[in-house]
Amino acid sequence: MKYVNAATVLPDALVRELQTYIQGGYLYIPTEKERQKRWGEVSGYRKELKERNRNISAAYRNGVSVWTLAEEYGLSVYAIRKIIYQKEQI
After folding, report:
1. Are both 48 and 83 inside the same structural domain?
2. Whole domain around residue 6: which residue ranges?
3. Dihedral class, residue 74 (left if φ above 0, else alpha if ψ from -120 to 50, else beta)
4. Rounded alpha-carbon distances, angstroms, from residue 58 to 4, 78, 80, 89
């Protein structure tokens, strides 16, 4: 989240109105529910994890052991099992 000077993006009348409530402080304006993005969507990490999990599942189906996958991906055996057995990928 970056800070923006209200005077540079809002009309003067609105800035003056806001100043009646808060002066010289920070005001957080939340995103509308319809515009909110899920975790990892902005950075692309969500997509990366989804692809990684598909690769893990495919490798397992092709005979690679859970222990080998854990070593290769730097994850615990438990985490690999969760990925393999989950119904819906991220």
Report:
1. yes
2. 1-30
3. left
4. 46, 17, 12, 13
pLDDT in tens, the chain (90 residues): 688 899 999 999 999 999 999 988 888 888 788 777 777 777 878 899 999 999 999 999 999 999 999 999 999 999 999 999 986 544
Count: domains in the chain: 2
Q: 46 and 15 in one domain?
A: no
| pTM confidence score | 0.56
Cα radius of gyration rounded to whole Å, the chain: 23
